[in-house]
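Notes continue from the previous slide.

Worked example: a multi-chain complex. Inputs as given:
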Amino acid sequence: MAEKKHEDRLQRIIEIERELGEIQDVDVLLERILTETRKIVNADAGSIYVVEGDKLKIKCGHNDTFLKELAPGEKLPYTSFSFPINEKQICGYVALSGKPLNIKDCYRISESKPYKFNKNTDITTDYRTKSMYTIPLKMANGNLLGILQIINAKDENGKIITFDQDAEMLIAHFASSAVQALQHAYLTANMVKRMLKMAEFRDPKETYPHIERVSSYSLEIYDRWAFNHNIPEAEIHRYRDNLKIAAKFHDVGKVGISDVILKKAFPRFTDEERNIMKGHTCIGAQLFEPPESLLDIMSQEVALHHHDRWDGGASGYPGRISLSDFSVKDGIVPITEPLSGKDIPLSARIVAVADVFDALSHKRCYKEAWTIEDAFTEIMNNSGTQFDPEVVLAFMQVKDRICSIQMAFPDEPED
Amino acid sequence: MAEKKHEDRLQRIIEIERELGEIQDVDVLLERILTETRKIVNADAGSIYVVEGDKLKIKCGHNDTFLKELAPGEKLPYTSFSFPINEKQICGYVALSGKPLNIKDCYRISESKPYKFNKNTDITTDYRTKSMYTIPLKMANGNLLGILQIINAKDENGKIITFDQDAEMLIAHFASSAVQALQHAYLTANMVKRMLKMAEFRDPKETYPHIERVSSYSLEIYDRWAFNHNIPEAEIHRYRDNLKIAAKFHDVGKVGISDVILKKAFPRFTDEERNIMKGHTCIGAQLFEPPESLLDIMSQEVALHHHDRWDGGASGYPGRISLSDFSVKDGIVPITEPLSGKDIPLSARIVAVADVFDALSHKRCYKEAWTIEDAFTEIMNNSGTQFDPEVVLAFMQVKDRICSIQMAFPDEPED
């Protein structure tokens, strides 16, 4: 019986390892690694920290006990903090020693150990951290990517137990292939970053914080929309991974717009110039032509249609267009029928809300920043006209996390 | 004893699988997959074909018997051909059936089989293809990436033997992780392609065939240079993988140059415009800032220094420069000391030769194509002045393969 259980877990691990290898986005992958590691050993809580310079930065935190207290579809607060690597903290100790650490009870750590458990969070949240297993995520060459920490393993009756040898072995096996998947995801993230930097060289409005915010907002909106619509888990996994990256490419087509036009401030465009600017949607879509993956397809959808309107109103563009009708060289967007409602791909409907909200709530060269409340109100006022009302509903349902993301990625000060 | 051998092979396979997972370039990876598969079962020859549309295209072909007849450091001719997928050919049959095929003797295939062995190559090259194992490279979702075919397994005395069950099992195991590595490499190749397309949107001279040629020439030059210099195998593996991709980014910095200047034909530049154009080297290097990998570092070297001269002559640029002295916004390359000799990174010295050779031997908007012989002569005439003489020597030693690459990637006809 115990052997059968062990076999089943191993089989599941192998299947999940294959799935991890196909995840492209680092954040989406880290979430999944934490979820699956916790499932393997039935752990109540956990976190992943990544190395950034000489600091550890939290990337995700789970806690089933807290989650049960929330309404269905709600998530724990979005957290963003980092701390210097230091052997007095458990994570820092594991980072420096490079070895896993299995603690039976965090409240009974021997005084002789260099590290201590910090009870502050337990006290403020009324939680009891007991068993804890902390493992370094190390590459084959020894470089440390981050720290995986799981807390409070449970037996079949929900009683907190210690992480046993079997759990240690399973987690070590799983972590090693999680690291391989992570290395690939970092490579992809690096390439994405270079592509976005190319666009930023041309249009300095397309800054790193703006793009990170739009991408993170989009993921939050999608997660809530998918909950509201009972989307199956496998589809959610696939969609959110592609959306997280595709959202970043929404304005990448600006790379093909003449800098004479790009450098003008928006309200002073002539009609012709405005029409050329609209071409950034088609140029962006052309960039992913011919599409070779689901990511390419979604990147095209987002780039092409994030300025189309839910009600098909005349200010939306480029409308119902075939890419073959557009030449990057001429840059002229042809006159088209409007595209509206669900004919606009979901990904583009989501990014439309995320992009406009972010533009409103931040300073641009041609406008001051709106207050975050005014920006939320503006989005709501345009629900059903400019924006898909179900997307706006999901957006408003995750308002708290949107605010936290905004604070986690502030604009850099102007020089 | 047999068990020990089996164990050793398995151990080696696991180690190689890890190494495969770190290779970024598709062509470099395919070469390595073929080499390692052949080693596992001691096969004399083999090929890999990839699916392109409804065709199979050869990507690499090995034959130890032919190789032994060449001078040390020489390679077999560069081959480039493709054929429609068709069950009458062995590869096509395996592609369509999706199952491995183990043939004991290619000259004794039963008449009842739909496929036949084509003896033409054997006849013209005086070779005897006997045992052959052909396996589809299929993704987890069933999509076919290509066909791996290995020929003439040998026993310890060099006698041709059949691929036995043990060999089948080892190859199947190896192929499945080779496919995973390939999927990642294709993802990377896709991203690289999109980055280059962004540059091509701005400067139509930076076409796909030009970039593929420069990158493939660079690999050939490096391989020969590394042979001439007795570079250890592990370093060669790492270097050629990075160089193959980094070479493609040599002019990617043009994305940051104003289109007013880019669209002018070269000889008509004013001094100021020419100076701004020179900034593409620094912009390219900035794109990979801060470097996160060996690929980033090499991409910076190539972008920054592929116009510096071996003799430090005044027409080389940007010279001894610190990236912090260059602002993408201003675009002015500061006045610097010249950089010369081995202070110019090897990668940049190689790409310098590859890039100039390709520009000379092809038509540009401001000049006609030179004959390939004139282009080779021009490179030789500038050995020791513009170019590193040892790089030019290696280049001339692989002249035949350079010519074949040129034919494999012709310029597209102008519209």
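Summary box: Strands of chain A lie at 43-52, 55-63, 82-84, 101-103, 132-138, 144-154, 160-161. The interface with chain B takes residues 18, 21-22, 24, 140, 180, 183-184, 186-188, 190-192, 194-195, 197-199, 201-202, 252, 255-256, 258-260, 283, 287-288, 292-293, 296, 328 of chain A (CB under 8 Å).
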